[in-house]
Amino acid sequence: MKITPIIGLEVHVELKTKSKMFCSCSAEHFHVDPNTHTCPTCLGLPGALPVPNKTACEWCIKLGLALGCTPNESSFFERKNYFYPDLAKGYQLTQYEKPFVINGKIKIGDQEVRINRAHMEEDTGKSVHIKDNGQELTLIDYNRCGVPLVEIVSEPDITSAQMAKDYLLKMQQIIRYLGISDADIEKGSMRCEPTVNLKIEDNDQVFYTPLVEIKNVASLTGVQTAIDFEIHRQTEAFKQTGEVKSKTNKNTFGWDADKNQTFLQREKEGSSDYRYFPEPDIPHIEFTKEEIEEIRKTIPELPDGKITRYKKDFSLNDYDANLLTSDIDFSKAYELALGQNPDSTFAKFTANLFIGAIKTHLNESQENLNIDKINSIFFKNLFDAVSKSEISSTVAKQVTIESYQTGKDPVEIAKSKGLIQVSDSAEIEKLAIGVISQNSKAVEDYKKNPASIGFLIGKLMQASKGSANPQLAKEILEKLLK
Ligand SMILES: [Zn+2]
Question: What is the CB neighbour count within 10 angstroms for residue 84?
Answer without folding.
Answer: 11
